[in-house]
Amino acid sequence: MTRSSRQKRSVKRRVSKESIMSSGSYAESQTTSEYTADSMDKRVDSIQQHYNFIQHIWQSCFSAPVEEALMRGSFVLDIGCGTGNWLKEMANEYKCSEFVGVDILRHLTAEVNQLTNITFVQSNVLELLPFEENHFDYVRISNMILCFPENEWGNLLNEVARILKPGGYVEIEEPDLEISNRGPILDHMVSCCLEIYTQHGINSKLHTRLELYLASTNQFTDVEWDHKIFSFSSFNDIPGLSLGEVSYYFVGDIAPRIAEYMGVTEKELIFMFDQIQ
To answer: How high is the pLDDT of residue 247?
Structure first.
């Protein structure tokens, strides 16, 4: 991948197929209040498990050719940073760089808050991003597919183009939500989820549309794809990465809606995920 000209921004995109990823950070705020303490703990645990899952698949924190720039010192933005797992790992590795995480809710871990080269900004990314033009060298967007309707992606990427320096990189990592070879329990769950997502304007095949949205900005060049196709059976012997454990992340903050749609309680829904093999 060649670097872009000073007039254009480059894109390195990692698309993981047949996976189940989503941060859910931009779900309606009232949904969060519906959680019990136990389910909130379960959610936080699932975020960590999911991050471990993603790292196991990619074996790296990024694919864009930004290693040397990070070593020298760069300004990096993580959109939808969640609990800050990625920020923590990057900030510890690249101490000369400054990292910013933006999310609609603040739920960074204590370890992340202690790192001096990480700044958190609480903001809704569907509004004007609170950063100056040409500010960041590298912008990361990961697992935001369930966070807002597909028709918002064009606006978001225009904002990314505004705050990204000429010659900078944006890396987008999104899944194909339509898992293949599903067993009966998972098939029922996934079918319910996909129906609800469709009702809310979420495209389970968003990864096939991202290039169109990037092109619509007329600001990005040198777009590259990187796919990973995998079987969940390969994770069965890894603690915390079984199909059931990772699958819970799939429903994210809409767990109460999924449970209602399926005619079960949220506790029963969690139990169902625990039974997935």
So the answer is: 64
CA atoms of 161 and 31, how far apart (whole Å) = 31
Domain range for 42: 9-181+205-253
Tell whether 95 is covered by a domain: yes
Query: 15: which residues sit within 8 A by CB, 6+ positions away?
Result: 172, 173, 174, 175, 176, 207, 210, 225, 226, 227
Question: In 3D, which of 186, 189, 169 has the Cα closest to residue 62?
Answer: 169
Q: Is 0.90 topped by the overall pTM?
A: no
H or E, element range at 5: none
> In this prediction, what percent of the chain has a pLDDT beyond 70?
74
Query: Torsions phi, psi of 33, nearest 5?
Result: -65, -15
Residue 200 placed within a domain: no
The residue type found at 118 is I
> 161 with 135: CB under 8 angstroms?
no
Sign of CA dihedral 180, 183, 184, 189: negative
Q: How many residues would you count in the chain?
A: 277
Instruction: Provide the 3-class DSSP secondary structure of residue 31.
Output: helix
Element (H, E) at 81: none
How many of the other CB atoms lie within 10 Å of CB of 13?
A: 22
- Please name the helix (run of DSSP H) or strand (run of DSSP E) that holds residue 130, with its range, or none: none
Q: Report residue 166 as tokens.
A: 């000429």
Instruction: Give the model confidence (pLDDT) of 28-69 as tens digits.
Output: 323 333 444 455 565 667 677 778 888 888 889 999 999 999
Q: How confident is the model at residue 74 (pLDDT cuts 50, 70, 90)?
A: very high
Radius of gyration of the chain (CA): 18
Q: Say which CATH number the domain at 238 has.
A: 3.40.50.150
User: For 218, left (φ over 0), alpha (ψ -120 to 50), or beta?
Assistant: left
The residue to which tokens 């993981």 are assigned: 16
- How many domains are contained in the chain? 1
